[in-house]
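Reviewers of the previous submission asked for a worked example of the structure-prediction workflow described in the proposal, so we include one complete record here. The input consisted solely of the amino acid sequence. No template or homolog information was supplied to the procedure at any stage.
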Amino acid sequence: MRTFWDELALYLRYLQAIGVEALPKRKSFERFLKLDLSPPPKNLEEVAKEIKNCTRCKLHRTRTHIVLGEGPEQTKLMFVGEAPGRDEDLEGRPFVGRAGKLLDQILETIGLRRAEVYITNVVKCRPPGNRNPEPDEIEACLPYLSKQIKIIHPRLICTLGLVAAQTILATTQPLARLRGKVHEREDFKVVVTYHPAFLLRYPSYKVQALEDLRLLKRLYQELE
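From that input alone, the workflow returned the following structure tokens.
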């Protein structure tokens, strides 16, 4: 049985393999949720119009499409990933590649359809080479994510991957310490699990991801 340190070492090797040299410090996400937006957006369509020509960070130079998110405005459950990949950048939709198909399967395991939940990413433009988003890119996109959360007002958020978990929870703790528990926030609860792309690389972690999904399903059912 792997220990916490075994998991951490494996995940750090994975990050190193994809070119991540250091884990950035996370600024408080909650301050974005408490921003007094003037005037606040009425719906996701307004956010889409606002972000359409965004040049807040360098990612706008290499993107094909901005990937704002997808799903109903009225939903209790929201999934937040890290950033669009190649397929998402080409189609302008979140989680449409191999990782997206796995996410669909994940939803099926807890009795949900993709159309029932809202899916987005911390960063809305694809980082070159599918690298992890950098701190300034995350900072530039956080106001958009804040507006999405304010409009949708989810009761439950599931973060997919390290970047999403650290951003939403404003922490630098490793994923192994964040998953397996319920994180209480003022307006919603957070469940942390692995990114589908990570599970494709390391299928043995699907067992742990299933544990996270069971926790997520229980919390979701309690909301009904």
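The two ends are 36 Å apart (CA to CA). We consider this example representative of the routine output the project will generate in years two and three.
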